[in-house]
Amino acid sequence: MKKWYKQLHWQIIIGLVLGLIWGLIASVSGFTEFTIDYIQPVGTIFINLLKLIAVPLVLASLIVGVTNLNDVTQLSRMGGKTIGIYLVTTICAITIGLTVVNIIQPGDFLPAETQEQLMSSYEGNIEGSAESAQEVIDRSPMTFFVDIVPQNFFKAASDNGNMLQVVFVAILLGIGLIQIPSDKSKSLVNFFDSLNEVIIKIVDLVMKIAPYGVFALMAGVIVDLAGDDIGQALNLLGALGWYCVAVLVGLLLHLFIVYSSLFKMFSKMKLTDFFKAIRPAMLLGFSTSSSSATLPVTMERVEKNVGVDEEVASFVLPIGATINMDGTSLYQAVAAVFIAQALGLDLGLGQQLTIVITATLASIGSAGVPGAGIIMLVIVLQAIQVPVEGIALILGVDRILDMCRTAVNITGDAAVSVAVAHTEGLLGEMHLEDDE
């Protein structure tokens, strides 16, 4: 058995803690510019490496999974289950968020002078988000489905935000391969199978530098938040403390209530064992704030440690990374009500039901749009007639909360893959002697 400090998840945690300490030291000692110029780029390189292998991994593993399936009916059934469970967990997340924020009422704790200071500091950061949100609202209801089908595969594959298009092409290729004689398809299937194995090995190599990448990312987050004055960051966190508490409590409740219920309904897996199996992916999601960047690691952990069959993981997880945003949707609900409370606006039951509907639709409608979290929030605020400018109240702590909600998003994707795999009879045994 490995010594604890040689296990991957502990190395990542150590990297997180040391990055936090360095960021604080840099802010106090004036090493902010050094951190931004020489340490933060290491984290950027690490994220770029993960993003680099995301598209080829999804393409290769999904093609191999479809060709092994040999049953288009089973594939369509799996798709229906995936979308259905994603929608249910998203609605649960929003409902939990609304419940928590109405109980805590964090907006009542924000002094008027703090509101004015935050609004003046961050109001310039939301102009572009309002325009992008309007573009999403103006889309045709069928635009989402039209966007899934690319005009040019190579253009789609050049942008990780177009992951659904890559999934579509991979499924199409897989179906085409099972429609022709095996003697003609064998060489191409073997090629993608070999490519898949190579990429998995590359994931293992990239993960060797994960602790250093996480250290650099965390140091960069603290420096970005605090600048040269750590007191400013602490004052900001103090002013928005109850808002942060509401978001974090909601996320924890969703993790332990919704996902444990999901496992009781669809498998015999223990939630604690599930967390142990995917913790490196959760920690990376927290560090990178990117579901797409973490996707290769999530897929590897779900297949290798959780026991989900490759054809399920390669189908469910890329879709989840694009449209399933449990953590983000919960955050939308808390943020919308918090802003309304801070501005002295009372939201009735009808408006809060509007938040549930709008946030659910926005989580799908804004898929693949850069800065999707803020754009989704603009759409929700417009739907309940709360001034969009109120977003300035929360932008100061958004980066930290984004890390938390991304970790929940990734956990949700993995949990749904377990449920779908169990219903398809494609869930194997767990392997918890991990971090090899």
From TrEMBL:
UniProt entry tagged with the keyword Cell membrane: yes
Claim: Nucleotide-binding is one of the keywords in the record: no
Gene3D superfamilies documented for this protein: Sodium:dicarboxylate symporter (1.10.3860.10)
InterPro entries: DAACS (IPR050746), Na-dicarboxylate_symporter (IPR001991), Na-dicarboxylate_symporter_CS (IPR018107), Na:dicarbo_symporter_sf (IPR036458)
GO biological processes: dicarboxylic acid transport; L-alpha-amino acid transmembrane transport
Protein's UniProt name: Dicarboxylate/amino acid:cation symporter
Organism: Fodinibius halophilus
Compartment(s) where it occurs, according to its Swiss-Prot or TrEMBL record: Cell membrane
GO molecular function terms noted in the UniProt entry: symporter activity
Main localization, broad class: membrane
